[in-house]
Amino acid sequence: MRTELTVNGTVHVLEADPRTSLLDALRHHLGLTGSKKGCDHGQCGACTVIVDGRRINSCLTLACMHDGEAITTIEGLGTPVAMAPLQAAFVDRDAYQCGYCTPGQICSATAMLDEVAAGWPSHVTDDLEAAPDLSDAEISERMSGNLCRCSAYPNIVAAIRDAAEGTR
CA-CA distance, 72 to 51, in Å (whole number)? Predict the structure, then answer.
């Protein structure tokens, strides 16, 4: 099946089996290996990418379902020389151990901060009419779909707060 994927601002024409997951298309057909295959069941978040501004588990969706949509992977957020604020905050806060979950964590946090800016509440948001306060509980709830086997959660939360507050 022919599919046009717009990944990190570049259009890629993909000829692949219609059963190819977006994650496998990114990794095996386009060579973008930042997104990781952790569980392949949508339970760990290592494969999180941003599609049209919303975070998704790329292992749970088919590439052909995203024809013409804007897909952003970790490779599209920044480079080692010009890191995105969240990437720099993760480095500053040592918010990774092995680093396997880090691309998914950063993509998820990027979209999560956009959700907060749009005023979307979470299950732990106290005041549904006010802008969500980024408490530890709020950040943890919003990032609960991204697991870290190394348990770097305190540093991940701190890095997200730093990026949200503009201190990084």
Answer: 6
Mean pLDDT within 4-25? 97
Pick 166 or 137 by higher pLDDT.
137
Average pLDDT, the chain: 95
What distance in Å separates the CA atoms of residue 25 and residue 20, rounded to the nearest whole number? 6
Task: List domains and CATH numbers for the chain.
Answer: 2-76 (3.10.20.30), 85-165 (1.10.150.120)
Q: Is 132 exposed, middle or buried (0-12, 13-18, 19+ CB in 10 A)?
A: buried
Q: In which region does residue 162 sit, left (phi positive, over 0), alpha (psi from -120 to 50) or beta (all else)?
A: alpha
Distance, in Å, from the CA atom of 19 to the CA atom of 110, rounded to the nearest integer, reads: 28
| N-term to C-term CA, the chain | 43
**Rounded average pLDDT over 44-55:** 98
Contact residues for 118 (Cβ-Cβ < 8 A; gap 6+): none
Whole-model pTM: value is 0.95
